Amino acid sequence: MMVSTKGRYALTVMVDLARNAADAYVSLSDIAEREDLSMKYLESIISTLNKGGMLLSLRGKNGGYKLAREPKDYNINEILLLTEGTLAPVGCIMQDGVHCDKAATCSTLPLWAGLDGVIENYLSNITLQDIIEGNRKKMLGDYCDNCESN
Predict the structure, then answer these.
(1) Which burial class, exposed, middle or buried, applies to 99 when counting CB atoms under 10 A from its CB (0-12, 13-18, 19+)?
(2) What are the pLDDT digits (tens) for 89-145?
């Protein structure tokens, strides 16, 4: 699994909105400036997030975007799935199941399916709230013994 720039930037935008929106709408130009992102690329990402029901939008002078829900109600898995389509570690495992003619005899399929489950479980248990609060212990979990010092 490799998260694309679109996925990483979408998460960055969601974190920015979680930190800065509160009850007000935030303009794309403010997000672009704070996060040093291209407006053109940001427009594409915002469109995906908005169509996916993650954001509320308002047109006009004081318009912009804000989260449709509270930061604690967004898990990272759902944000990345919206922008990436899949987080599967191999092509034969997709969000809706295994798609391979050799699945019945594939000796490595359980490995990939297990890894896919670990990724989904990990990302589903971390929220935007965890990120904005800097909950390193939850984000690192048992996955990195010596990362706390970094």
Answers:
(1) exposed
(2) 888 887 666 777 887 888 988 898 899 999 999 999 999 999 999 888 888 876 666
Residue 139, amino acid: M
Contact 81, 95 (CB under 8 A): yes
What the chain holds in terms of domains, given with CATH numbers, is 1-150 (1.10.10.10)
DSSP states of 7-70:
HHHHHHHHHHHHHH-TTS-B-HHHHHHHHT--HHHHHHHHHHHHHTTSEEEE-STT-EEEESS-
Q: What is the pTM of this model?
A: 0.86
Percent of the chain with pLDDT over 70: 91
Distance between CA atoms of residues 85 and 78, nearest Å: 10
Q: Yes or no: say if 39 and 64 are a contact pair by the CB < 8 Å rule.
A: no
